[in-house]
Design brief:
homodimer, four-stranded parallel β-sheet, Rossmann fold, elongated, DNA-binding, 12 helices, alpha/beta
Chain lengths: 354, 354
DNA sequence: CTGAAAGCGCTTACAG
DNA sequence: CTGAAAGCGCTTACAG
């Protein structure tokens, strides 16, 4: 034995805290049992190099018997890969992005990755902090759901690690972006109202600092134009995608705006606010006013009346983002294939009567 | 220099992938700059031992100047602490638990911890898998939001690491549980209806496999008893806390049950379903039927009519759980101090007319 | 109070 | 195809 041969361990942390699960099995133990070196086990685990069938088998058996599960923490330190991806969401409790998060989680988990969700709170500073936290945790990639961070900042981060951005248009070597066809969706919604005979169609906009809001406004304008209906600024009011802003917006429209027989809200949440405002003013939906929302959140079909809206599968947006990330991680070129927006006609719209 | 003095590094991985952020600063660099050993830096970082004021200062300056941020991955490997806690939530997109998650995130982040959210999908197998994933990631503690895992299983996991359980009653050395006062809340709701003169009060129960559902049923029964109103099974129907189950439940009640003038739904989501069902049957709320929900989810005030309900601060449930976890992590005894449930009277209830 | 050294559980050039 | 060894960036007994 040479003098510097492996000394017996000094610490006995490996007593393990667990009686329940027993001490975690290490890769070294697997190697021992399989009669190979740790390197070989590692290579089999990662598919890093070809290994003779016998050893392959021996190692697989050992892993099986020992119930070995590689320690992601050690992996992260040694290999630089943590098998985790950071997700900057705006609010972890968002009724809208929640579905996307669920989608992300599903495909990531299947691929052996864990998503780390951090809230950006719709604030640039928080988003930045969230990303820093995620970088410190050495995530392998970053998925950003909308937010307020300037594109330039995102592009900069994308130089450090693969990035997928939802709700923006960005191109770059290690970056991929995908979004709904908001403009098309908004056209569908507006056109539906036009088809029902409405000509005075009010519009509840989202916060125009938000790309989605701008695109939906554009769709509304386009549909009007296509139908030869002049755009009337007195019919447009800005909200911020929340219920209260929908309520307030409609109040303002009713008080100061031009008369209208239909209303298109840029999202369902504002539509709910609108519904309440109209109710308060004694206006009935759809008898007096037809209303269309956007998103088809799960409660939309339980609105009174059930809300006509534009369905965007936020869930699929999430799975799409996750799949794109996986592609990036494999150094492949991602492609997104989102289902187009779809009008869901329920009971909040009807043919114009007056 | 002795022969085994630190050899120059062979690999130059430290070229770093980042031009943007520069190579991450290591603790070693901080030590170098401050003229102390890495051990000392580590001790200052962790408050593990007293250090002379001068060194303390020097190290803090170095950290400041270098912008050093300890690598949690390395910390996790070396120290066994990852500064992360696992959160088993039922659906990452849950409108109900979302608020709790947000609360957890807030207090955890302040304490330097990162929460790892994993969905259990209301399925025992998935919950188990979620916990295994979290254990593999070496989280320092576990917060479990309700779920179907048997108590015994949770107790077993609690032998391995600190655990906080929301929505159950569990006692143990390394475990803490907290929950709403469901029974009290349900009594409040029912009592409110009684106070309005209602005697035939129907009850929409949640899935009785769920503790919360049982407690709310109990509260309903107690309130009736307190008021001398006999319990009538024909007035009770079981749902599963979802909107469709609320809708179906009311339909069934209307078709087969006994007549009623008021309805208490075990949660807001079922109340929304109930609202639609009543609307479909031409029954008006609150003129024909008074309706009370439970939870006060954010859209409750935008229901038509705005829903009378019982407020439980799910957010505070989350912060309470997180604070309890922090206490456990410090080997202290946690204490929870949840605000009591509160009746929020809006417009879905009124004095009995017929 | 403080440092040198070993170790956490992996991965990966390097050298057959 | 495969192993020995160094290293990832920390923490923590051990020994002053």
């Amino acid at each position: 034995m040479s003098p510097d041969s492996k000394p017996s361990k000094r610490r006995t942390r490996s007593t393990s805290k667990a009686t329940g699960a027993g001490a975690p099995v290490t890769l070294e133990q697997v190697a021992l049992k399989a009669g190979v070196s740790p390197s070989t086990v590692s290579r089999i685990l990662n598919g890093t190099a070809a290994v003779s069938p016998e050893k392959q088998q021996a190692v697989e058996d050992a892993i099986e018997q020992l119930g070995f599960r590689p320690n992601p923490v050690a992996r992260g330190l040694a290999g630089g890969r943590t098998l985790s991806v950071g997700v900057v969401t705006q609010t972890i409790s968002s009724p809208f992005y929640g579905e996307a998060m669920y989608g992300i989680e599903g495909v990531m988990e299947q691929a052996g990755y864990v998503p780390l969700f951090v809230s950006g709170n719709w604030q640039e500073a928080d988003e930045r902090k969230a990303i820093e936290t995620l970088l410190a945790r050495r995530v392998d990639g970053l998925i950003v759901l909308a937010g307020r961070l300037p594109n330039a900042a995102l592009l900069r981060y994308a130089r450090e690690l693969p990035m997928v951005v939802v709700g923006r248009q960005l191109r770059g070597p290690q970056i991929f972006s995908l979004n709904f066809e908001n403009t098309l969706g908004a056209r569908l919604a507006t056109q539906h109202l036009v088809d029902l005979g409405h000509r005075r169609i009010a519009f509840l906009s989202g916060d125009l600092a938000h790309g989605d809001a701008v695109e939906r406004l554009r769709g509304y304008e386009q549909a009007l134009k296509d139908s030869g209906i002049p755009f009337d600024p007195a019919l447009v009011v800005q909200g911020d995608f929340t219920e209260p802003s929908g309520l307030l917006g409609v109040m303002r429209l009713l008080d100061d705006g031009a008369p209208f027989t239909a209303l298109f809200a840029s999202n369902d949440q504002m539509a709910f606010g609108a519904l309440l405002a109209l109710h308060r003013r004694g206006l009935r939906v759809p008898d007096d006013i037809s209303l269309v929302g956007f998103d088809d959140v799960s409660v939309a079909k339980y609105a009174l009346p059930p809300l006509t809206t534009v369905r965007q599968s936020v869930y699929e947006l999430g799975t799409g983002a996750a799949r794109a990330m996986l592609a990036l991680l494999r150094a492949e070129t991602p492609s997104a294939n989102l289902p187009p927006p779809e009008l869901v006609v329920r009971e909040s719209t009807r043919r114009r009567m007056r």
